[in-house]
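Fig. S4 source data, part A: sequence.
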Amino acid sequence: MIREEYEHLEERLLSPLACLSKNSVGRAIPEKKDPYRTDFQRDVDRIIYSKAFRRLQYKTQVFIAPKGDHYRNRLTHTLEVMAIARSISRALRLNPDLTEAIAVGHDLGHSPFGHAGEEVLNEKVKEYFEDMQFVHTEQSLRVVDLLEKRLKSDGTEVFGLNLTHEVREGIAKHSKGLKDLKDFSDSALPSTLEGQVVRISDRIAYLHHDLDDAIRAKIIKESDVPEKVKKILGDNNSKRLSTIILNVIEESRNKDKITVSTDIEMAMDEWKNFLMEKVYIGSEPKKEEEKVKIILGFLFDYYMNNIEKLRDYLHSHPIIIHHKDPVSYLKEDKRERVRAIADYISSMTDRFAIELVQSIMFPSPIS
């Protein structure tokens, strides 16, 4: 099917509230339309074929370096968000391609070691410049706009995926931190319903899989789940997931905002607070996060004092567009040095960061 036919299908089949591909605000740099893919389908492909997307499989979701093959990582989290968001989106007759593009791109800027790594990088950039910050949502946008490369049809390689406005906005506004759902104003929401679907699907996904992983790790038991959560949402994880998804669909159908009923929202917030108390803060596996401060803190300071060690990386960083000798430039410009080092460290996988510290700290054996 060629693109025009697909766009016509969207117009006939999707809800009047859906964001149609042909009505996209477009890309920062205008491009010739693809002959058979819509703009949003094209964005999905650009993200999935990126290196940043493949690295997600070796980045922590919640538990650092768990023993066992069934714990979630950042990639499986992303896929579960996509699956939930796509189900809701299809039921509401929203644009499934836009939903999928936002979902697969939403966590591309996550650092190694999950939110613990994000906190360390934020502390380090602020240590050098108080007005700087490292936030994974902003970094996700930086990855798709600047850091990731793509090959154009003429064979030239350029920086930035040049995604559509709607996908970029959905990525930028997907996060809620650990706040209650009621604590957000409408201005914090993405302008498209597809973006709002991904936003709530992110919360649904991590409530579901973080509890599942915590039970697998024997940190908590199913019987520990608050009675109110079980009474409203269901007495097992599968029922709870289905209850919330169904409620989002029923409460949002033919409305211009994605929402859940008050009782479901309260139960979700209680579930989140339960995980925060029992899993996210102070549990035995989370004590490993102290080592994250040592690993990433060491790397940050090491490269601040030895920026020439990043010579190869900097030649594949967009800084090379304007500075042919990026090492000399960064030795003079401390602020840009902090930014480039944050880019480098945040792109690492958990295992790469650990191996890098070992290679710097310990002598290599003679073979």
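Fig. S4 source data, part B ends here. The two ends are 58 Å apart (CA to CA).
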